[in-house]
Amino acid sequence: xxxxxxxxxxxxxxxxxxxxxxxxxxxxxxxxxxxxxxxxxxxxxxxxxxxxxxxxxxxxxxxxxxxxxxxxxxxxxxxxxxxxxxxxxxxxxxxxxxxxxxxxxxxxxxxxxxxxxxxxxxxxxxxxxxxxxxxxxxxxxxxxxxxxxxxxxxxxxxxxxxxxxxxxxxxxxxxxxxxxxxxxxxxxxxxxxxxxxxxxxxxxxxxxxxxxxxxxxxxxxxxxxxxxxxxxxxxxx
Length: 237
Ligand SMILES: C[S@@+](CC[C@H](N)C(=O)[O-])C[C@H]1O[C@@H](n2cnc3c(N)ncnc32)[C@H](O)[C@@H]1O
What we know:
Blueprint: E1 11-14, E2 20-24, E3 29-30, H1 37-56, E4 59-65, H2 71-83, E5 86-93, H3 99-102, H4 107-115, H5 123-132, E6 138-142, E7 145-151, E8 164-169, H6 183-192, E9 193-201, H7 206-213, E10 217-223, E11 230-236
Parallel strand pairs: 4-5, 4-8, 5-7, 8-9
Antiparallel strand pairs: 1-2, 2-3, 6-7, 9-11, 10-11
Helix pairs in contact: 1-2, 2-5, 6-7
Protein backbone atom coordinates (compact mmCIF):
# COMPACT_ATOMS: atom_id res chain seq x y z
CA UNK A 1 0.00 0.00 0.00
CA UNK A 2 1.39 3.41 -0.96
CA UNK A 3 0.32 6.23 1.34
CA UNK A 4 -1.36 9.07 -0.59
CA UNK A 5 1.17 11.60 0.60
CA UNK A 6 3.88 10.01 -1.58
CA UNK A 7 2.04 11.49 -4.55
CA UNK A 8 2.58 14.99 -3.22
CA UNK A 9 5.82 17.01 -3.22
CA UNK A 10 7.44 17.33 0.20
CA UNK A 11 8.35 20.83 1.32
CA UNK A 12 11.77 21.90 2.51
CA UNK A 13 11.91 22.92 6.19
CA UNK A 14 14.71 24.19 8.42
CA UNK A 15 14.98 22.19 11.65
CA UNK A 16 16.25 23.37 15.05
CA UNK A 17 19.97 22.70 14.40
CA UNK A 18 19.82 24.56 11.06
CA UNK A 19 19.75 21.42 8.91
CA UNK A 20 17.05 20.93 6.33
CA UNK A 21 14.41 18.25 6.29
CA UNK A 22 11.38 17.46 4.15
CA UNK A 23 7.77 17.37 5.31
CA UNK A 24 4.44 16.43 3.81
CA UNK A 25 2.25 19.30 5.03
CA UNK A 26 -1.03 17.45 4.45
CA UNK A 27 -0.20 14.75 7.03
CA UNK A 28 2.42 16.46 9.17
CA UNK A 29 4.83 13.54 8.56
CA UNK A 30 8.42 14.28 7.69
CA UNK A 31 11.79 12.70 7.03
CA UNK A 32 13.34 13.79 10.36
CA UNK A 33 12.69 15.42 13.70
CA UNK A 34 11.94 19.13 13.53
CA UNK A 35 14.19 19.39 16.61
CA UNK A 36 17.26 18.86 14.40
CA UNK A 37 17.52 16.54 11.41
CA UNK A 38 21.28 16.14 11.46
CA UNK A 39 21.48 15.93 15.27
CA UNK A 40 18.75 13.27 15.26
CA UNK A 41 20.55 11.20 12.62
CA UNK A 42 23.75 11.28 14.69
CA UNK A 43 21.82 10.41 17.87
CA UNK A 44 19.83 7.51 16.40
CA UNK A 45 22.13 5.98 13.76
CA UNK A 46 25.72 7.21 13.93
CA UNK A 47 26.44 7.15 17.68
CA UNK A 48 24.72 3.93 18.82
CA UNK A 49 24.99 1.89 15.60
CA UNK A 50 27.85 2.96 13.31
CA UNK A 51 30.42 4.15 15.85
CA UNK A 52 30.73 0.94 17.91
CA UNK A 53 31.09 -1.12 14.75
CA UNK A 54 33.59 1.34 13.23
CA UNK A 55 35.72 1.06 16.36
CA UNK A 56 35.61 -2.75 16.34
CA UNK A 57 36.04 -3.53 12.63
CA UNK A 58 38.43 -2.40 9.87
CA UNK A 59 35.58 -2.52 7.37
CA UNK A 60 31.87 -2.03 8.12
CA UNK A 61 28.85 -3.18 6.11
CA UNK A 62 25.87 -0.87 6.59
CA UNK A 63 22.27 -1.43 5.48
CA UNK A 64 19.88 1.51 5.44
CA UNK A 65 16.15 1.31 4.91
CA UNK A 66 15.11 4.55 3.19
CA UNK A 67 17.89 6.51 1.40
CA UNK A 68 15.66 9.62 1.20
CA UNK A 69 17.68 12.80 1.58
CA UNK A 70 20.96 10.88 1.81
CA UNK A 71 21.62 12.36 5.24
CA UNK A 72 22.55 9.07 6.94
CA UNK A 73 24.77 8.03 4.05
CA UNK A 74 26.49 11.43 4.08
CA UNK A 75 27.11 11.33 7.85
CA UNK A 76 28.41 7.76 7.63
CA UNK A 77 30.77 8.77 4.82
CA UNK A 78 32.14 11.74 6.81
CA UNK A 79 32.54 9.69 10.00
CA UNK A 80 34.15 6.76 8.15
CA UNK A 81 36.87 9.11 6.89
CA UNK A 82 37.33 10.53 10.37
CA UNK A 83 37.76 7.02 11.84
CA UNK A 84 39.77 5.68 8.91
CA UNK A 85 37.40 2.75 8.44
CA UNK A 86 36.20 1.30 5.14
CA UNK A 87 32.44 1.15 4.54
CA UNK A 88 30.21 -0.72 2.15
CA UNK A 89 26.89 1.10 2.35
CA UNK A 90 23.71 -0.45 0.97
CA UNK A 91 20.54 1.63 0.94
CA UNK A 92 17.06 0.56 -0.12
CA UNK A 93 14.71 3.27 -1.36
CA UNK A 94 11.28 2.88 -2.93
CA UNK A 95 10.61 6.52 -3.84
CA UNK A 96 13.85 8.38 -4.73
CA UNK A 97 13.80 12.15 -4.48
CA UNK A 98 14.12 14.34 -7.56
CA UNK A 99 17.34 16.32 -8.06
CA UNK A 100 15.48 19.62 -7.72
CA UNK A 101 14.77 18.60 -4.11
CA UNK A 102 17.98 16.90 -2.93
CA UNK A 103 20.24 19.51 -4.56
CA UNK A 104 18.80 22.18 -2.23
CA UNK A 105 19.62 20.32 0.99
CA UNK A 106 22.20 22.11 3.16
CA UNK A 107 23.88 19.10 4.81
CA UNK A 108 27.48 19.86 3.76
CA UNK A 109 27.23 23.40 5.14
CA UNK A 110 25.59 22.36 8.43
CA UNK A 111 28.01 19.46 8.90
CA UNK A 112 30.89 21.96 8.82
CA UNK A 113 29.12 24.18 11.35
CA UNK A 114 28.27 21.37 13.78
CA UNK A 115 31.26 19.04 13.43
CA UNK A 116 33.97 21.01 11.57
CA UNK A 117 35.96 19.70 8.63
CA UNK A 118 39.46 18.97 9.93
CA UNK A 119 40.22 16.68 7.00
CA UNK A 120 39.43 19.49 4.56
CA UNK A 121 36.99 17.31 2.61
CA UNK A 122 34.98 18.66 -0.31
CA UNK A 123 31.72 17.90 1.46
CA UNK A 124 29.52 19.37 -1.28
CA UNK A 125 31.13 17.11 -3.88
CA UNK A 126 30.78 14.04 -1.63
CA UNK A 127 27.08 14.72 -0.98
CA UNK A 128 26.52 15.22 -4.70
CA UNK A 129 28.30 11.94 -5.53
CA UNK A 130 26.10 9.99 -3.12
CA UNK A 131 22.98 11.27 -4.86
CA UNK A 132 24.21 10.90 -8.42
CA UNK A 133 25.58 7.37 -7.82
CA UNK A 134 23.79 5.04 -10.22
CA UNK A 135 21.02 2.87 -8.78
CA UNK A 136 21.44 -0.88 -8.73
CA UNK A 137 25.23 -1.17 -8.74
CA UNK A 138 28.15 -0.66 -6.38
CA UNK A 139 29.76 2.78 -6.79
CA UNK A 140 33.04 3.92 -5.22
CA UNK A 141 32.58 7.38 -3.68
CA UNK A 142 36.04 7.55 -2.05
CA UNK A 143 38.79 4.96 -1.81
CA UNK A 144 37.24 3.50 1.35
CA UNK A 145 33.54 4.13 0.83
CA UNK A 146 31.34 2.25 -1.62
CA UNK A 147 27.60 2.63 -1.96
CA UNK A 148 24.97 0.39 -3.51
CA UNK A 149 21.60 2.10 -3.82
CA UNK A 150 18.79 -0.35 -4.44
CA UNK A 151 15.62 1.05 -5.91
CA UNK A 152 12.79 -1.06 -4.54
CA UNK A 153 10.62 -1.99 -1.58
CA UNK A 154 12.38 -3.38 1.46
CA UNK A 155 9.60 -6.00 1.71
CA UNK A 156 10.60 -7.34 -1.72
CA UNK A 157 14.27 -6.75 -2.51
CA UNK A 158 16.78 -9.56 -2.16
CA UNK A 159 19.30 -8.92 0.59
CA UNK A 160 22.46 -10.93 1.26
CA UNK A 161 22.40 -13.15 4.36
CA UNK A 162 24.61 -12.66 7.45
CA UNK A 163 26.14 -9.62 5.76
CA UNK A 164 25.61 -6.39 7.69
CA UNK A 165 27.21 -5.00 10.85
CA UNK A 166 24.78 -2.06 11.05
CA UNK A 167 21.16 -1.53 10.10
CA UNK A 168 19.66 1.97 10.07
CA UNK A 169 15.93 1.33 10.07
CA UNK A 170 14.64 4.72 8.92
CA UNK A 171 11.19 4.12 7.44
CA UNK A 172 8.23 6.45 7.89
CA UNK A 173 6.33 5.90 11.13
CA UNK A 174 4.13 2.79 11.62
CA UNK A 175 0.95 4.88 11.57
CA UNK A 176 1.73 5.81 7.93
CA UNK A 177 3.47 2.65 6.72
CA UNK A 178 2.47 -0.21 9.07
CA UNK A 179 3.55 -2.76 6.43
CA UNK A 180 7.21 -1.79 7.02
CA UNK A 181 7.17 -2.58 10.74
CA UNK A 182 5.98 -6.19 10.74
CA UNK A 183 7.65 -9.36 12.05
CA UNK A 184 7.89 -10.57 8.41
CA UNK A 185 9.91 -7.54 7.32
CA UNK A 186 12.14 -7.75 10.38
CA UNK A 187 12.70 -11.46 9.62
CA UNK A 188 14.24 -10.37 6.28
CA UNK A 189 16.34 -7.75 8.02
CA UNK A 190 17.45 -10.12 10.80
CA UNK A 191 18.55 -12.69 8.21
CA UNK A 192 20.66 -10.03 6.51
CA UNK A 193 22.42 -9.10 9.78
CA UNK A 194 25.60 -10.86 10.80
CA UNK A 195 26.20 -12.10 14.37
CA UNK A 196 26.78 -9.11 16.67
CA UNK A 197 25.13 -6.71 14.21
CA UNK A 198 23.29 -3.69 15.58
CA UNK A 199 19.99 -2.29 14.32
CA UNK A 200 18.76 1.09 15.51
CA UNK A 201 15.58 2.99 14.84
CA UNK A 202 13.86 6.07 16.24
CA UNK A 203 10.63 4.11 16.80
CA UNK A 204 10.07 2.23 20.05
CA UNK A 205 6.38 1.32 19.84
CA UNK A 206 5.23 -1.88 21.57
CA UNK A 207 4.23 -3.61 18.31
CA UNK A 208 7.57 -2.75 16.74
CA UNK A 209 9.52 -4.10 19.73
CA UNK A 210 7.52 -7.35 19.53
CA UNK A 211 8.08 -7.63 15.77
CA UNK A 212 11.84 -7.21 16.24
CA UNK A 213 12.01 -9.54 19.25
CA UNK A 214 10.05 -12.24 17.38
CA UNK A 215 13.13 -12.63 15.18
CA UNK A 216 15.50 -13.41 18.03
CA UNK A 217 17.10 -9.95 18.23
CA UNK A 218 17.95 -8.67 21.71
CA UNK A 219 16.41 -5.29 22.25
CA UNK A 220 17.43 -2.37 24.45
CA UNK A 221 15.63 0.91 24.87
CA UNK A 222 17.87 3.94 24.56
CA UNK A 223 17.14 7.58 25.31
CA UNK A 224 15.23 9.00 22.35
CA UNK A 225 16.18 12.17 20.49
CA UNK A 226 14.81 15.52 21.76
CA UNK A 227 11.18 15.11 22.84
CA UNK A 228 11.12 11.34 22.20
CA UNK A 229 11.42 9.35 25.42
CA UNK A 230 12.87 6.20 23.86
CA UNK A 231 14.45 4.72 20.75
CA UNK A 232 15.27 1.12 19.91
CA UNK A 233 18.55 -0.76 19.64
CA UNK A 234 18.50 -4.44 18.64
CA UNK A 235 21.46 -6.81 18.50
CA UNK A 236 21.74 -10.15 16.71
CA UNK A 237 23.40 -12.40 19.28
C1 LIG B 1 11.68 8.80 7.27
S1 LIG B 1 12.26 8.88 5.58
C2 LIG B 1 14.00 8.79 5.91
C3 LIG B 1 14.87 8.73 4.74
C4 LIG B 1 16.38 8.90 4.93
N1 LIG B 1 16.98 7.95 5.81
C5 LIG B 1 16.72 10.32 5.28
O1 LIG B 1 17.39 10.55 6.31
O2 LIG B 1 16.35 11.20 4.54
C6 LIG B 1 11.75 7.26 5.02
C7 LIG B 1 12.21 6.86 3.65
O3 LIG B 1 11.75 5.54 3.35
C8 LIG B 1 11.37 5.48 1.99
N2 LIG B 1 10.44 4.36 1.81
C9 LIG B 1 9.09 4.36 1.88
N3 LIG B 1 8.60 3.13 1.68
C10 LIG B 1 9.65 2.32 1.44
C11 LIG B 1 9.77 0.92 1.16
N4 LIG B 1 8.70 0.13 1.07
N5 LIG B 1 11.00 0.41 0.99
C12 LIG B 1 12.10 1.21 1.06
N6 LIG B 1 12.03 2.55 1.34
C13 LIG B 1 10.83 3.09 1.52
C14 LIG B 1 10.76 6.85 1.75
O4 LIG B 1 10.67 7.16 0.39
C15 LIG B 1 11.72 7.75 2.52
O5 LIG B 1 12.80 8.13 1.71
